[in-house]
Amino acid sequence: MSGTMDFDAELIRALQEDGRASILSLAQRLGQSRAAVAARLRTMLADRTVRVVAAVDPVFLGQHVLAHVSIRTDGSVELVAEHLRDMSETVLVSAVGGAHDVVTEVRVGSMSELHDLLALIRAIDGVLDISTIIYSTVIKGFFVSEYHGGVTLDTIDEALIEQLQADGRKSFRALGDEVRLSPSAVATRVQRMIDAGVIKISAVEARGLAHRQLS
Predict the structure, then answer these.
(1) What is the count of structural domains for the chain?
(2) Are residues 41 and 85 in the same domain?
(3) Which residues contact residue 170 at a Cβ distance below 8 angstroms, ignoring those fewer than 6 apart?
(4) 23 in the same domain as 92
């Protein structure tokens, strides 16, 4: 059992560094066969133990304020979480145990926007009270900014990002079919956005065996 858990942990760690790493490179890094890595990854993606998705850099989007909000509900955990998940400002929503029922991380452009958002969260049916921590610096995390500036996107880039936000490992051929470009042209565009820090493609791990993370 521990061997499988170690295998999974190493595989997830590798995908957090490079969500589009090839099966061959993953197998070489983990010292496993290509068949074993492909099968394990297929299983983890199918049961949502892990998702590989693209995230757009928050600074590129003009989102400079990141806050962690802990929420206590009247028992309507799922309804509150679903409401939060539908908000464009939330980058994580998770049901938790303890003094609070739901936690969320939010990204906004300014402190005034944060105050407005917190007022909206307080007004959600089922929310009893909230506790907010504003991050000053993110040392490590999926949303650490790596944007270098000076990049503009066109409608094709935006369409590719939308596809990669749903499936960060979608093949260049499948992406090309969506935007009517060749696989090589798509690969060039995606790599340009990654190199510029506009997007990051990485693994997001489900939290706990109950898979209660809702983001």
Answers:
(1) 2
(2) no
(3) 163, 164
(4) no
Structure token digits, residue 195: 């190199």
**Together in a domain, 35 and 84:** no
**206 or 28: which leads in pLDDT:** 28
Q: Residue type for 2, please?
A: S
For residues 208 and 144, the model is more confident at 144
Beta bridge partners of 108: 65
Domain of residue 39 covers 2-52
Answer whether 47's CB lies under 8 Å from 14's CB.
no
| CA dihedral sign of residues 82, 83, 84, 89 | positive
Asked if residue 150 belongs to a domain, the reply is: no
User: Does position 185 have pLDDT exceeding 90, yes or no?
Assistant: yes
Q: What is the pLDDT of residue 13?
A: 92
Q: What gap in Å lies between CA 124 and CA 93, rounded to an integer?
A: 15
CATH number at residue 17: 1.10.10.10
Q: Are 53 and 167 in contact (CB under 8 A)?
A: yes
Report how far apart, in Å, the C-alpha atoms of 54 and of each of 13, 68, 103, 129, 147 are: 16, 21, 22, 32, 14
Are residue 136 and residue 95 in the same domain, yes or no?
yes
pLDDT-based confidence at residue 206 (cuts at 50, 70, 90): low
Enter the tokens of residue 130.
């909230």
Which residues lie across from 204 on neighbouring strands?
51
Is the model's pLDDT at 133 over the cut of 90? yes
pLDDT digits (tens, 9 = 90+) for 30-77: 999 999 999 999 999 998 888 898 888 877 877 788 899 999 999 999
